[in-house]
Specification:
Radius of gyration: 20 Å
Number of strands: 12
Largest sheet: 6 strands, mixed
Order of helices and strands: HEEHEHEHHHEEEEHEEEE
Distance between the termini: 72 Å
Strand content: 15-25%
Helix content: 10-25%
């Protein structure tokens, strides 16, 4: 009898240990990714950009709050928040508390679907099924119904009051030590709130650098930004795949971006034009799937330096 039950019990024990690790350790094992991107004019002084994304704040997440607050010690030149700050309608005060020290620095932001709507309990395997069917977000799926509406207006008002620039389907600027930085942003393509026609036209010629910002890196947005000539695109949304296979990587991105670019710095090329693409794996999870495996939560410090040559 022992031989009959030994293997199933062993598999169960390994599975339980994996879940305990994914939820109890890795999901709270916060990391800082460092990346260098050569996009500034030759000879320009480096700029340090802190990108935070997919915080998915839930009330009571003290360790996450403290870690986000500690990032202010990096003294970035500016902050880029690529959305999905919430995973709880009651999470706004704690999200703002976590970001408070960072809001002392210049910054820009876009929103993601979870800033607008609360998450729903769903089978994680549905991401694999939807990928196989070519369905992502509301692109091919029925519109969301019966969802919880998050108080995103409170987030917006606090960010605006701190001087962060709202880039949801609009443009904005930051001036840092005499350097003019232009930004073009989109509202979240995952729920079809993106309106590229409102911001089309490409980089602003009188700026030292133009950066494109979007929450979900759908190909239609990346293609438009790249075709228009933006040298750098910043995005989030993918969670880096969240539940990954060691030495292989992500299985899904929850959008139509390929899994090979689920996180980190890569490039995007359309019709011979290329842009740097940085996708943050984010530092949170949906409140109903508080797991990460082979994909630690992160923020990124991007050092922008002069172009070679």
């Amino acid at each position: 009898m022992r031989a009959r039950y030994g293997i199933p019990l062993g598999i169960t024990a390994v599975g339980a240990a994996g879940l305990a690790y994914a939820a109890g350790f890795e999901a709270r094992s916060f990391r800082l990714r460092r990346v260098t991107v050569p996009v500034l004019p030759p000879g320009a002084r480096p700029l340090r950009v802190l990108q935070v994304s997919d915080i998915h704040m839930v009330s009571g997440q003290r360790k996450k709050r403290a870690w986000l607050q500690s990032l202010a010690g990096l003294r970035p030149d500016f902050v880029v928040n690529t959305g999905d700050n919430l995973s709880d309608p009651e999470g706004v005060p704690e999200a703002l508390d976590a970001l408070g020290p960072l809001m002392e620095f210049p910054g820009v932001y876009v929103f993601g679907s979870n800033d607008y709507y609360g998450p729903k309990l769903r089978n994680p395997a549905r991401y694999l099924f939807e990928k196989a069917q070519g369905k992502h977000g509301l692109n091919g799926n029925a519109p969301a119904v019966g969802v919880v509406h998050n108080p995103w207006e409170d987030l917006r008002d606090a960010f605006d009051a701190a001087g962060w620039v709202n880039l949801n389907n609009t443009r904005g600027r930051l001036k840092l030590d005499g350097m003019e930085l232009a930004f073009t942003g989109l509202d979240d393509p995952h729920i079809k709130r993106d309106r590229y026609t409102r911001v089309a036209g490409g980089p602003e010629r009188d700026a030292d650098l133009s950066i494109a910002v979007v929450h979900a890196p759908y190909l239609r947005s990346l293609d438009s930004f790249t075709t228009d000539g933006y040298p750098l695109i910043l995005a989030g949304h993918t969670h880096g795949g969240q539940l990954c296979i060691p030495f292989y990587g992500a299985l899904v991105t929850n959008c139509d971006l390929d899994t090979g670019r689920a996180k980190g710095l890569s490039s995007h090329t359309v019709d011979g034009r290329s842009a740097y693409l940085h996708v943050s794996a984010g530092c949170g999870t949906n409140r109903y799937t508080p797991l990460r495996f082979a994909c630690p939560p992160e923020a990124t410090l991007l050092t922008l330096v002069g172009r070679r040559g």
